[in-house]
Amino acid sequence: MAEEQAEPLLQQFGLQVEQLDYAFIRDCEDVKVVEHIVQVLRSGEEGYFLHLTRYAEDHLTKLCPDSALLQEGATSAVDERMQEEARKDLEEWALTMKEIEEQLKEEEELINISPPLPPIRGSSSSSPALTLSEDDIEALLLEGQQFLEKDNFIQASLCFQKVLSHYPAHNRALEGMSTIHNQPRKPTGKTRPLIQEIL
Fold first, then answer.
1. Fewer CB atoms near the end CB (10 Å): N or C, the chain?
2. Do 14 and 75 lie in a common domain?
3. By residue range, what is the domain housing residue 72?
4. What is the distance between the alpha carbons of residues 110 and 16, in angstroms, rounded to a whole number?
5. Residues 120-153: pLDDT tens digits?
6. How far is CA 185 from the centre of its chain?
């Protein structure tokens, strides 16, 4: 028969979660009840509330300065655990911000890419030399489409740009550029949740 899980301290002491409250602790004059509240808060079973734990300890000090619980100084362990969790959350938040910033820079570069314009009428400059073969164009368009499917918009735009530099009115290349410009901005799949609030 499997060993039964230990009963939570809240239930062992006959406390209600509503009693883990500043107002209740402030008005409570029963030393045993305040000691039980301190033990529950230190255990972290109901969450880590460092300030509330210290508040309960301060109130216990007023009621019973010689309480054995006050000699243990367990809040330092809670404090260290919370500081470690906060440090990890801040590191994750900083990493997430860096990823978002890099993505925004890429999208800004993408927005600034525009297809080449045909020469102005009457200008002396001649049209670009048509040096791409039909096979080259088809390969570039296919490669650009594959990059689009992988959400690699910068590489896709370079493929379409190369076609447009030789054929400024090429329909499929223009459609590819239009698809890129109409892509919604969204975070990368690597983005993790931002710093969690520590209760």
1. N
2. yes
3. 9-81
4. 57
5. 565 544 444 557 788 888 888 888 888 888 888 8
6. 16
